[in-house]
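Morning, I've got a small favour to ask if you have a moment. I owe you a coffee for this, so here goes:

…
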Amino acid sequence: MAPSIGVPQNARSRRTREALLEAARTLIEEDGFDVMTLDAVARRAGVSPRALYLHFPSRSELLTALYRRLGESEDLSVSLAKVWNREDAVSALEEWAHHIARSHPRILAISRAIERARSTDEDAAALWQLTMRNWLTSCRRLADWLDAEHQLAAPWTPKTAADMLWTLMSWDVTERLTVDRRWSRKAYGTHLAAMLKATFVPAGPAAT
């Protein structure tokens, strides 16, 4: 996916850009990924197609910018930083669970729409693959940290632990617990943290 153009310095241009990104997000969340054409985004934002193309020459660039905006507007990087700022791997694992509970419900609708469209839309597929790579990188970092501190229970290896952590981030899990079963984010984080600790951390004293 091509990198998006920079954020414009002109206040009016910034407002137009934000309106376009908000329109794209709303279209995806309300009507699905297939309807999010550049023309539809322009109409929803109330701007001309020419104005849209000045900011986003392609649908791919618009989606890349929207992906980055989600991280900024929902403070995903701030939430994730709380994981890496922990002093030890076990508390980082627990904070990881709370990070998922804080962040995933807020971006569930748009993420589900992109997931459904990835088999038929190349831009959606590229965005999905980027997200999955980022997830797996973070999961491996956490698993390596546990292993380095001798806090990774048998039979897990850093690779298998990372794979399982990545799988447990599934949008299915988030949707079923927070939407279908109506768990609060606090309950989601608390129970996920307990499960992760019981699964990946040795029950007895740490190995030396």
Summary: The two ends are 45 Å apart (CA to CA). Confidence is low (pLDDT under 50) at residues 1-5.
